[in-house]
């Protein structure tokens, strides 16, 4: 049996420098390359595309996208982090 413990944040170690998909509070999602993280789930992404979901006057779902070269995501807004292939 191995002495190393498996921790939830071990996923971040595996995904460093890989593309990730992050779901956030407030009907937002970001896809980008993971560069850094900490124990609070604060993360830094590069080549990021943020998608913001909303509804129009007719209750139709609309989405807008914003591109960022580098973005810092505060950990308390993170709901889910996964590989884009898992979404």
UniProtKB/TrEMBL annotation:
Residues 7-87 form the Sm domain. It is found in: Nucleus. One of its GO terms (biological process) is mRNA splicing, via spliceosome. One of its GO terms (molecular function) is RNA binding. GO terms for cellular component: spliceosomal complex; U4/U6 x U5 tri-snRNP complex; U6 snRNP. Keywords: mRNA processing, mRNA splicing, Nucleus, Ribonucleoprotein, RNA-binding, Spliceosome. Gene3D superfamilies: 2.30.30.100. InterPro entries: Lsm3, LSM_dom_sf, Sm, Sm-like_LSM3, Sm_dom_euk/arc. LSm subunits form a heteromer with a doughnut shape. Belongs to the snRNP Sm proteins family. Binds specifically to the 3'-terminal U-tract of U6 snRNA. This is LSM complex subunit LSM3. It comes from Wickerhamomyces pijperi.
């Amino acid at each position: 049996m191995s002495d190393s413990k498996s921790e939830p944040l071990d996923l971040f170690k595996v995904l460093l420098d890989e593309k990730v998909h992050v779901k956030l509070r407030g009907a937002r999602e970001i896809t980008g390359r993971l560069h850094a993280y900490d124990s609070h789930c604060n993360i830094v992404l590069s080549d990021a595309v943020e998608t913001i979901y909303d509804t129009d006057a007719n209750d139709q779902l609309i989405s807008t996208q914003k591109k960022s070269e580098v973005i810092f995501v505060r950990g308390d807004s993170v709901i889910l982090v996964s590989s884009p292939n898992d979404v």
